[in-house]
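Materials and Methods. Structural model of Type 4b pilus protein PilO2. The 444-residue sequence of Type 4b pilus protein PilO2 from Pseudomonas benzopyrenica was retrieved and submitted for structure prediction as follows.
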Amino acid sequence: MAIASTSPVAPAQTAQILTYHGKSFVSGLQWHPLGSLTGYMKEAREYGRLHKMDIVAIRRTPNVIQAGFVARSAGAMKGMYSLAAALAGQLGQSWLAAWQVPDDEPRYALVAVIDGAVIPGYDLVGSATEIQRKVAQLESRALTFDETYLPPEFGLGGKPLDIDELLQPGNLKRDYALRPLAFGLSKGEWIRVGVLGLIVVAGVIGYSQWEAHKREQRRFAAVAAEAARQAELQAINERSKQQQTIHALEHPWAKRPGVPDFLLTCNGAIDRLPLSIAGWLFTSAQCDGVLLSTNYKRDGNSTASAFVAATRGHFADEPAFFDEGNGAALKLTFEPPLAGDDELLQAAAALADLTSWLHGQGLAPIIKEVPVVIPTPQAMPGQPAPPAPPPPDFKHFELTFNTALPPDIVLRDVPSQGLRLREIKTLLQSDQLAWSVTGDLYVK
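The predicted structure was written out as tokens:
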């Protein structure tokens, strides 16, 4: 009878250790393609040293040489097995599998392989919600799996996976085992590398060579696409107040500042603009949270050269003159913190709360629904056109209103769950500032 359990790991690690039939299997390896046919172990050691990973699983197939890395501090050690490698060695070239891991709280393991390569980020253990969302992401991308193994409770089709049978000790090979990274190559490694090199040189000819090249293109395209997603997530986390998951990439509100930070950035910057610079008078400004553009007009005997000298070093670039030199535009740039992936409210309740609050401030907002369009992923090289993406799980409403008071006053304590400001504009009219605000409300 198989027993599955989880060993504690350091908080920074995503690796999980599962036990089946008395053998330990590690999930959550960081998979990386190796480009060298003869020096792949040296390449793996260099990558491991750079990323502070000291345990590795090596996968060699006719299509790919791939390494899965993990740190010893995560509890992994020599003699354990890579969960993804053990399954990839038995289930074929392209497949997707998920199954429940017995525990105090139900969790699920997920592994995905395309053209013989474990897809980075899809060797993990997580909650049912997280794993189902990861499966939906894969199905919405241009990837074709020969087999899909999913638990019935997901309701996503496929067939159940007999994980106990697959991980029987008799099915385990040395190639699935983890090994420590060490400096240099052993004599046995040099012999194996030489033999592998002869086989590869003898086999990579003619039509087979061309087919291998096309498979390599597809694999690298899939790996590059996932690497780009991970890089985008890292950029978001560097600016967010709380760490975001990969699901934040699907939600536009997660990539924008919250209402208080937007007001602090934009309204604050506009408040600090001088009404007059070297005789040039302020006329208008607009800010989208990243860029503030402001216009000034020449008055009296003021000159462009005096305006340039007065503004140099205080704005993002030199003034841009227009209207035959009688107008000038200046810019400021910002990088406010991002609000993160709010849990959205139901549409009816959120709209009622927001409009009631705005009406209570004497404002007359215009709110209209904006269709949410999910872009269709591009087809991978040599792959058929991907299926249409799943329908969005949120709605989008545009909000606009005008006010005679600064937005940081009229929007103080506004219900802001799912609300993001898009732009603030102000115009000087008869010695008074007139303001307009555009925002976006995201709801279920």
